[in-house]
Amino acid sequence: MAVKQLSDGGPDGVSVGQDTSDLISFYGVTAIAQQTVTAVATGATIATVVSNLQSLSAALESLGLIADS
User: Fold this and answer.
1) Beta carbons within 8 Å of 14's beta carbon, 6+ residues apart
2) How far apart are CA 60 and CA 16, in angstroms?
3) 30-36 long-range contacts, Cβ below 8 Å, gap at least 24?
4) pLDDT digits (tens, 9 = 90+) for 7-64
5) What is the DSSP string of 44-59?
6) Is residue 27 within 8 Å of residue 64, measured between CB atoms?
7) Where are the domains of the chain?
8) pTM, full prediction
9) Helix, strand, or coil here: 6?
10) How far apart are CA 6 and CA 37, in angstroms?
11) Residue 62, SS3?
12) Bridge-partner residues for 32, per DSSP?
């Protein structure tokens, strides 16, 4: 089976979704809206950094961009 390209080769690139509420998915997982992750402030505790990394990991998993090991 040939790979289907989404790009038309234009100089402006390709965009998926027009709004943060548009649903998208990768690898056949359920489509979801844009996820948010709280930024880590300078001087944050290790616990805060770990929590934010866990949130980021969960957001990537929900899109299907990474798999749970």
Assistant:
1) 6, 7, 8
2) 16
3) 32/62, 32/63, 35/59, 35/62, 35/63
4) 889 999 988 889 999 998 888 888 889 888 888 888 889 998 899 899 999 888 888 8
5) --HHHHHHHHHHHHHH
6) yes
7) 32-64
8) 0.66
9) coil
10) 28
11) helix
12) 24
